[in-house]
Amino acid sequence: MTTWLDEVVSGTERRLSAFFGEERARLEGLAVESSELVEALESLTMRGGKRLRPAVLFAAFKAVEPAGRFEQVADACAALELLQTYLLVHDDWMDGDDERRGGPSVHASLGARHGDAHLGASLAILAGDLASAQSWRLLMSATDDPDRRAALTAVALRMHEEVIVGQQLDVLAVEDVTRMQQLKTGSYTLRGPLALGAVLGDANEAQRAALDAFGVPLGEAFQIRDDILGTFGDPGATGKPAGNDLRAGKRTSLVRAAEQSGDDAALKAIRKVHGQADAKDADVAAAIAALESCGAKASVLARLESLLVDARAAIAGADFSDEGRAMLDALAEKLAVRAT
How many domains does the chain fold into? Predict the structure, then answer.
């Protein structure tokens, strides 16, 4: 049976497919070479994304506008996917990740095509910038109402600023991992999409506050699950090598919990591979085992469960449609307890 999530996925992908066709024709009018960037973005965007952010936006929209239809938010949903593409392209280059969604990352693909890694990276940065511009183009077409468009712009600008600052904190490996997670992931995965859905559905102040109270803990929970998958996940499901976050030197919630555990032997094993791109597989496996034996994994899983309880409590008594509340509740489970 087709579910509302299936409808969001298929509807978003139809809009994206049509949009990429429109963009290829439009940009080739500027320069035929531009098709290379559009094709790279299309390949990554259409290759296995879960469309979680569009689902969050649509659930918020339905919570405050029960009669709303997906077609009313299709452009905004597609805009969120292109925002994610832009961020992934740049993030993969910063982290030196050559794989994404079971295929080559954009900088790796373009570098291989041109036989020049630096040129590939330069083109990838431009491709990411183009995806950002395309995201704005779609978002601005999401409504004809000038007041609503202004409100969408304000939400999107805040979301964009927060995720950039969050990425800066991630690159700097700051001590405050929770703050970094709220800015980098919580902003454009939960709070931003929820706020966009609220604007499109003409939510009142109390409804907007309830959606934000739902998104804050769930955004952290989503990132914790991401941290767990980045270390303990199945490479066949995640599309990334096991222990990838350790080799990249990411200061994840798992690393922070290990540091707080006071287990010197575990910390020694972790530090041996943390930030070492060429770490041996056996040493990475030992570090992963240490994260479990010192209690770090159990600690962050307990935190995740607590955050999930807080998120659900925020919407339990809110003035939402029953259908929309059920959709938000289902998303909480899907976002916090996922395998990819």
Answer: 2
